[in-house]
């Protein structure tokens, strides 16, 4: 049996022989693991498509326990991302977070299309990379069913709020007297809430053409990084250290 589907390579791991193991986020089958036999060799017809960021049409043999890549028609290699260390760092972060947060074989067209669009933007356009990162984190919370409570009622007791305190473990806004001493909190205001709502619903191509003051991104980015790590149980993102190295 064969599966023919568009997909984007999230991860490529070289084996001790000439094979490359790929993690591909696909339109028709969700996240899948595929082996590209011989793709480690530059002479292999599969070598060009066995790299992160490659977007293409994958022909996959599903008849055995380990799915094998038979052929791939590349729509876009997105190689220009690798020409910029900053784009490579942020792009790698998004691919890795997608890989860590996405269950195998779960079809999620909205998430898939978002990752394809983000990679395309990184390859073709100069964008605010931190805004792109924040937007992905917020949309990921929405896609995964963990969008925080941003209504003017406490996530713990349900009573109306007179100030906006965002509690990570509680999953949204809470009263000061409802704060668990072990929880991590962030003070926000109405404008922060409006920005989060905007980033959660607007198309990513609209977002990157919208100007936001950096202080909003500075405040919301660590808040949502921590929120995602707690609620999606993601302990470590290797590529985050890459971003941190570039910012020094």
Tell me the layout of helices and strands.
Elements: E1 2-14, E2 20-26, E3 30-36, E4 55-61, E5 68-76, H1 85-101, H2 109-124, H3 129-143, E6 165-167, E7 172-174, E8 185-187, H4 190-201, H5 204-207, H6 214-231, H7 238-247
Antiparallel strand pairs: 1-2, 1-4, 2-3, 4-5, 6-7, 6-8
Helix pairs in contact: 1-2, 1-3, 1-7, 2-3, 3-4, 3-6
Keywords: DNA damage, DNA recombination, DNA repair
Family: Belongs to the RecO family.
Function: Involved in DNA repair and RecF pathway recombination.
Notes on the structure:
This protein folds into two domains: 2-77, Nucleic acid-binding proteins (OB fold (Dihydrolipoamide Acetyltransferase, E2P), Beta Barrel), CATH 2.40.50; 84-148 and 181-247, de novo design (two linked rop proteins), CATH 1.20.1440. Helices cover 37% and strands 21% of the residues. The chain contains seven helices and eight strands. The protein has helices at 85-101, 109-124, 129-143, 190-201, 204-207, 214-231, 238-247; strands at residues 2-14, 20-26, 30-36, 55-61, 68-76, 165-167, 172-174, 185-187. Strands 3-2-1-4-5 form a five-stranded antiparallel sheet. The radius of gyration is 20 Å and the shape is elongated. 33% of the residues are buried. The mean pLDDT is 94.
């Amino acid at each position: 049996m064969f599966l023919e589907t568009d997909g984007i390579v999230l991860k490529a791991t070289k084996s001790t022989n000439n094979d490359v193991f790929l993690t591909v986020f696909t339109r028709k089958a969700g996240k899948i693991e595929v082996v590209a036999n011989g793709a480690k060799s530059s002479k292999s017809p599969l070598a060009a498509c066995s790299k992160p960021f490659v977007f293409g049409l994958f022909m996959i043999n599903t008849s055995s326990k380990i799915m094998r890549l038979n052929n791939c028609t590349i729509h876009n290699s997105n190689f220009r991302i690798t020409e910029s260390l900053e784009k490579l760092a942020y792009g790698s972060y998004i691919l890795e977070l997608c890989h860590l947060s996405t269950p195998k074989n779960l079809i999620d067209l909205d998430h898939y299309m978002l990752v394809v669009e983000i990679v395309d933007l990184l390859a073709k356009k100069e964008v605010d990379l931190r805004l792109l990162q924040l937007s992905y984190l917020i949309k990921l919370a929405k896609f995964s069913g963990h969008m925080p409570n941003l209504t003017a009622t406490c996530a713990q007791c349900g009573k109306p709020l007179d100030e906006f305190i965002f509690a990570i473990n509680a999953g949204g806004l809470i009263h000061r007297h409802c704060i668990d001493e072990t929880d991590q909190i962030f003070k926000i205001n109405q404008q922060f809430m409006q920005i989060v709502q905007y980033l959660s619903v607007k198309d990513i191509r609209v977002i990157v053409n919208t100007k936001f003051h950096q202080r909003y991104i500075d405040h919301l980015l660590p808040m949502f990084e921590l929120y995602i790590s707690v609620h999606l149980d993601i302990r470590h993102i290797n590529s985050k250290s890459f971003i941190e190295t570039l910012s020094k």
